[in-house]
Design goal:
Layout (H helix, E strand, L loop, with lengths): L12 H5 L20 H20 L6 H11 L2 H16 L8 H15 L10 H19 L11 H4 L12 H22 L10 H7 L7 H12 L7 H21 L3 H13 L3
Length: 276
């Protein structure tokens, strides 16, 4: 039986993405003057990835990944090559996608690379990208077990404060939903920060603080379940039982229950991160 309280000493995103038995696919070189199958890449990004990325990190009305992500992907020829390798695997294994470790591993690598579009240093995505980048890094911290360190504000953050564009008008409900989202993710970041440097996991109290902000949202249920798997073992029977339920929930998400591919992939990554 898998020990759900076990904590691997070291784990990286690459190791979490890779399923046992998977091989690393060959990545085709991208010519400097053109990108093969660019329209196919765009369609896959727009349909299979961007909506799920926006849902996972809760970009809200900005739909940051849907509106700004693809040009950033096009600027990274390494990731374009990885996307082409992924499309080749999909084409070659269209009937056995869920059973093919190599395809699933490459899909996880692509998902995480696209998630990191908001944290790439070569672009200035503004305040929204910074907010999404913190959320991405907090999730990475929980998955890898490395304590999260949120960047602090500097003087440069306030230099052009008076010149900032006014926020778009939104309804009272939209403001309330946005506030709930920010409060949930602030707690996620705090929980990631609470991790023991020795890799013993997240404070159970910090995890429980997030529970009242789940609001029946699938993406938050996934994040909360990941946090439960990454929490410290405290001998609390209720927490141990809830952690087992979280493992089962993530397994069901990874095996087809999730409403989008990104949530399914991240659920599978979490199970690999915390398997015994």
């Amino acid at each position: 039986m898998t020990d759900i309280n076990a904590r691997p000493a070291k784990r990286s995103i690459e190791s979490i993405c890779t399923i046992a038995g998977a091989r690393v696919p060959s990545v085709p070189p991208i010519p400097p003057d053109s990108v093969p199958n660019l329209e196919s890449i765009r369609q896959v990004y727009d349909i299979a990835f961007a909506p799920g990325l926006d849902k996972l990190l809760e970009s809200g009305p900005t739909r940051w990944f849907s509106r700004q992500g693809f040009p950033l992907l096009c600027a990274n020829r390494t990731q374009l090559g990885n996307m082409l390798a992924y499309l080749t695997l999909v084409s070659n294994h269209a009937d056995t996608a869920t059973e093919n470790a190599t395809l699933a591993s490459q899909e996880a690598r692509i998902t995480w690379a696209l998630l990191e579009l908001c944290v790439r240093p070569e672009h200035d995505g503004g305040e929204e990208a910074d907010r999404l980048a913190r959320r991405c890094r907090a999730l990475e911290s929980i998955l890898t077990g490395e304590p999260f360190s949120s960047p602090t504000a500097s003087l440069a953050d306030f230099v052009h404060q008076d010149e900032a564009e006014p926020e778009p008008r939104s309804s009272a409900l939209e403001k309330q939903l946005g506030q709930r989202s920010n409060e949930f993710w602030n707690l996620v970041e705090a929980a990631a920060t609470s991790q023991d440097p020795e890799g013993e996991g997240i404070s159970p109290l910090a995890v429980q603080e997030c529970r009242r902000f789940l609001d029946g949202m699938e993406s938050r249920d996934v994040i909360y379940s990941i946090m439960l798997l990454g929490s410290k073992s405290s001998g609390n029977g209720d927490l141990t039982s809830e952690r087992e339920l979280a493992r089962r929930y993530l397994a069901s998400q990874a095996n087809g229950r999730a409403t989008n591919q990104v949530l399914a992939t991240v659920s599978g990554m979490a199970l690999r991160a915390f398997e015994g």
